[in-house]
Write a structure and sequence with these properties.
There is one protein chain. By secondary structure, this protein is α/β, with parallel strands linked by helices. The chain contains 14 helices and 14 strands.
């Protein structure tokens, strides 16, 4: 202790400490020298204060030490310690300064021997996990609506009543089969394996519930059996583990297809909720009714539409007859209108013809006056005699007059007038024109150096 080890000045008196200072130095020295540690012993003089704190003495055959475990720590102990229980506590040695009492402030408590069991539990857990028995991919899904539910537990277990009550409330349609077995003690592991084997041989259930109520690590140790874990992994029926309380974990929990925090939770996880299912079915039924009603409404609307479009044949014929009469009336009126338009047009044309028809009596006198004036003008015209001479001369030059005297005009195939007979060839066609009519001819003899050739005439 630093205060006690400080050197004293020569010729001075030793320091004087108060009791509280002494106890404080002793507490600090004790806590520094002895850190938190595990201590084993037997509980004696156990007192549960109204504040929730526990006070007791931990003793063995030769000595004892006072212990205090406050409420914020003892609430995590899942069992009720009693007088004479052998326990192991993790505690901090200290000194209660007010009375100078040496004591232990307990942080955790377990039954004696639980440390070795826990080490065995961790060792087996690591082994099976390495082998893949805890792998999520090998877990099987539970049936949504099981027809048979098997329960592996003790017939005298309180957890059985809770499970049966939950199953009856949630899913009474399933048949429940109990496979009785001890769940605690030396014979429990073999009994659990036998019950599981019986269930898998009979195959009368869709899911198995492996359940037990809470207890200490020793009480639940049967569910940490390696052979039981391998039997659960090999079970063809899905297994739900519900062992102990929510804070309890066993090997069976890890290897089972589904782990529930409590036996009641196992029953809940393995079954659908009848009330929720009924509500869901009611919801589906309402949706079906609404869908059916909408479908029927749509069909009714379509039927109404078709009914409006559908008419009796007599009505259809009457409508057609009425339409035919209407067309007949329109045709008759159209004919009358056309006839009237034609009559009006004839009247208009007759009026125009009457208006444009000349009156011979009214026009005869002007024509006669014009003829008399023309005769007088022509008789008095100075070129009258010259015009008559030119007309006579022009008549002599008229080819028609020549033809009238017995001559003809000969043309070759190209329509050219033939003036030189020596240019004609035998077989060449000719066209002859007379005063009245014409004829075709063919050259029969080629006499270019002789008199003009003869030819046949074809009219």
């Amino acid at each position: 202790m630093p205060a006690l080890q400080a050197p004293l000045a020569p010729m001075s008196s030793p320091p004087i400490l108060s009791v509280s200072e002494l106890n404080r130095l002793a507490r600090l020295a004790l806590e520094k020298a002895l850190p938190s540690c595990w201590v084993s012993g037997e509980i004696s003089n156990l007192t549960r204060a109204a504040s929730g704190h526990w006070y007791y003495t931990l003793k063995d055959a030769q000595a004892g030490v006072r212990c205090a475990m406050f409420r914020n720590r003892n609430q995590f102990v899942d069992w009720q310690p009693r007088e004479g229980d052998r326990v192991e506590v993790r505690a901090q040695p200290t000194l209660y300064e007010a009375r100078g009492d040496y004591q232990l402030i307990v942080e955790a408590m377990r039954r004696a021997g639980a440390g070795a069991l826990f080490e065995a539990f961790l060792k087996l857990k690591a082994k099976l996990e390495q082998e893949g028995l805890f792998a999520p991919e090998r877990k099987r899904a539970l049936p949504p609506y099981p027809r048979g539910i098997g329960i592996i537990t003790s017939p005298r277990a309180a957890a059985l009543r809770d499970v049966l009550t939950t199953l009856k409330r949630r899913w009474p349609a399933a048949a429940v089969v109990l496979y009785p077995t001890p769940v605690q003690g030396a014979e429990a592991p073999a009994g659990l394996r036998a019950a599981l084997g019986q269930a898998t041989r009979r195959m009368e259930c869709d899911v198995l519930l492996l359940v037990r109520g809470g207890g200490s690590l020793e009480d639940l140790w049967a569910f940490n059996d390696e052979s039981l874990a391998r039997a659960i992994a090999a079970s063809p029926i899905p297994v739900v583990s519900g062992v102990g309380h929510e804070t309890d974990f066993t090997i069976a929990d890890f290897v089972a297809d589904l782990r529930a925090p409590t036996p009641t939770g196992a029953a809940q996880l393995a079954t659908p909720d009848r009330e929720e299912l009924a509500q869901h079915l009611d919801h589906l039924n309402r949706r079906q009714v609404q869908a059916r009603r909408r479908h029927l409404d749509a069909l009714a609307q379509r039927l109404d539409s078709l009914t409006r479009r559908l008419r009796h044949p007599a009505q259809h014929l009457a409508a057609q007859r009425q339409h035919l009469e209407h067309l007949t009336d329109r045709l008759r009126l159209a004919r009358l209108a056309q006839r009237e338009r034609a009559r009006q047009r004839v009247d208009r044309l007759r009026e125009r013809l009457a208006a444009g028809k000349p009156n011979p009596a009214s026009l005869r006198e002007p024509v006669q006056r014009l003829q008399a004036a023309l005769a007088r003008a022509w008789g008095n015209h100075p070129d009258r005699n010259r015009l008559a001479a030119l007309t006579a001369h022009l008549g002599h030059l008229n080819p028609q007059a020549v033809l009238e005297r017995g001559y003809s005009i000969t043309r070759d195939a190209q329509g050219q007038v033939v003036r030189d007979g020596t240019l004609l060839k035998a077989g060449e066609r000719l066209e002859l024109a007379f005063a009245r009519g014409g004829a075709s001819a063919r050259v029969t003899k080629d006499e270019r150096d002789h008199p003009p050739p003869t030819h046949e005439t074809t009219t």
